Amino acid sequence: MKLYEGNIGATYRVKSVHVDEAINRRLEALGVNENTPLLVMNKKNSGTMIIKVRGTRLALGKRITGGIEVKEEAAS
């Protein structure tokens, strides 16, 4: 599923990232890599989201959240 389809408060694990090379490098520098867990903190209907990755909050637009494939983490 695409990241923008995620629900607020849910934790997901990144499966793959398919965005422009420059954006991909920036996301990697911020810690958004394959198998990285992330928490959806807030989202808008436009696809814009605020996520928490490795203790840092990031705001991402739909063009980026649409390029991030995730799978839902099992509730613990």
Give a concise summary.
The chain is of the alpha+beta class.
Describe this structure in words.
- 18% of the residues lie in helices and 38% in strands.
- It is α+β, with helices and mostly antiparallel strands.
- The model has no long low-confidence stretch (mean pLDDT 93).
- It has a five-stranded antiparallel β-sheet.
- The longest helix is centred in the middle third of the chain and has 10 residues, at 21-30.
- It has one domain (3-72): SH3 type barrels, CATH 2.30.30.90.
- It has helices at 21-30, 62-65, and strands at 11-17, 37-43, 49-53, 56-60, 68-72.
- A hairpin with a 5-residue loop joins strand 2 (37-43) and strand 3 (49-53).
Give unreliable regions as ranges: none
Mean pLDDT: 93
Oligomer: single chain
How would you sum up the global shape? Answer: globular
Strand content: 35-45%
The rounded Rg comes to: 11 Å
Largest sheet: 5 strands, antiparallel
How many strands in all? Answer: 5
What key attributes describe this structure?
76 residues; alpha+beta; globular; 2 helices; SH3 type barrels
Give the secondary structure arrangement, pairings included:
Blueprint: E1 11-17, H1 21-30, E2 37-43, E3 49-53, E4 56-60, H2 62-65, E5 68-72
Antiparallel strand pairs: 1-2, 1-5, 2-3, 3-4
